[in-house]
């Protein structure tokens, strides 16, 4: 798990390790999906971080140590995104202003693996984060489904033609093998081949899965639904500006333009049901 940078975004490489295809199927008000395991940090230190220039994110995570600087809202996004990796900012509803403004340095020790299986989501670490929020911040939440802004991924051209950098897969790549040796030849396998803040390329990927990846691009940051009506697997390569208003944005187009010009796809604003976590109670952390 890695979350760092000038804003609380999750890098696409992290999402690939924990994202799954099935969204929550919630009633109007329920409890968030339960984790398959319960766990707590062995020793935890939580201190207010007063330097506003320090980047939010994980400094160290291993099978023995966890160190990070987070706001409470960001930590909730990570702890309650299961099974879909992380929540967007608008999926955490309520709470006082300090959960967005106050930064906390968290140092903790843990015992055992981060997940239950090699290559699987770090559910034990997520359980520890939930326990930390409950024990030190008095967090109580519930889940609701609300109508929020979303994007629909559609074919942009009226004649249905795709862009020059989106083609149907020839079917020769192999299904990805999790936990494979680092020395293995990954070029033969389907999946993401390049994932940076300004580029995504893949072989043998379905467009619904691609839509999930687009959801976490900084200039998107909302649920993306596949409405292309294109079945099967595709190869694609798209380059875009990591953030449209960044100083170097002129070197590459914004993600919305890049999708049209390079892939022949479009993100259209829409409204749809989105699961949110509602904060019922939260407190300033108890002292160490």
Radius of gyration: 20 Å
Shape from CA axes? Answer: globular
Give a short account of the largest sheet: 5 strands, antiparallel
Mean pLDDT across all residues, rounded? 85
Report the β-strand fraction as a percent range: 25-35%
Count of domain modules: 2
Low-confidence regions: 1-27
Distance between the termini: 25 Å
Helix proportion: 10-25%
Count of distinct strands: 14
SS summary, helix count: 6
Describe this structure in words.
Helix content is 18%, strand content 32%. By secondary structure, the chain is α+β, with helices and mostly antiparallel strands. The protein folds into two domains: 4-142, no CATH class; 148-273, no CATH class. It has a five-stranded antiparallel β-sheet with strand order 1-4-5-7-3. Strands 2, 6, 8, 12 and 14 form a five-stranded mixed β-sheet that branches. The protein has a four-stranded antiparallel β-sheet with strand order 9-13-11-10. The protein starts with a strand and ends in a 7-residue tail after the last strand.
Describe, in short, the structure shown:
The protein is built from six helices and 14 strands.
List key phrases describing it:
288 residues, alpha+beta, 2 domains, 5-stranded antiparallel β-sheet, 6 helices, 14 strands, globular, disordered N terminus
List the helices and strands and how they pair.
Elements: E1 4-5, H1 12-18, E2 29-30, E3 43-49, E4 56-61, E5 65-70, H2 72-79, E6 92-93, H3 98-101, E7 103-109, H4 123-137, E8 140-155, E9 166-168, E10 191-196, E11 199-206, H5 207-215, E12 224-226, E13 233-239, H6 255-263, E14 265-281
């Amino acid at each position: 798990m890695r979350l760092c940078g000038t804003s609380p975004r999750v890098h696409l490489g992290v999402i690939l390790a924990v994202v799954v295809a099935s969204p929550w199927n919630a009633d109007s008000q329920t409890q968030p999906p339960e984790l398959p395991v319960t766990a707590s940090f062995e020793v935890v230190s939580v201190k207010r971080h007063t330097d506003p220039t320090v980047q939010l994110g994980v400094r160290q995570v291993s099978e023995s140590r966890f160190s990070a600087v987070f706001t409470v809202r960001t930590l909730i996004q990570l702890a309650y995104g299961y099974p879909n990796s992380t929540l967007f900012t608008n999926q955490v509803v309520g709470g006082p202003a300090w959960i967005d403004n106050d930064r906390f340095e968290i140092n903790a020790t843990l015992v055992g693996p981060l997940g239950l299986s090699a290559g699987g989501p770090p559910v034990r670490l997520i359980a520890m984060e939930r326990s930390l929020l409950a024990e030190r911040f008095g967090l109580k939440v519930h889940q609701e489904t609300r109508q929020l802004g979303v994007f629909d991924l559609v074919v942009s051209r009226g004649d249905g033609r795709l862009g020059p950098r989106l083609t149907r897969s020839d079917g020769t790549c192999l299904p990805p093998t999790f936990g494979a040796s680092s020395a293995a030849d990954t070029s033969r396998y389907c999946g993401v081949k390049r994932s940076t803040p300004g580029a995504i390329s893949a072989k043998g990927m379905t467009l619904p899965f691609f839509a999930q990846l687009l959801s976490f691009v900084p200039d998107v940051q909302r649920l993306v639904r596949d409405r292309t009506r294109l079945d099967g697997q595709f190869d694609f390569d798209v380059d875009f500006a990591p953030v449209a208003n960044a100083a170097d944005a002129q070197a590459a187009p914004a993600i919305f333009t890049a999708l049209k010009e390079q892939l022949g796809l479009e993100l259209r604003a829409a409204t749809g049901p989105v699961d949110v976590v509602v904060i019922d109670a939260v407190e300033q952390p108890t002292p160490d």
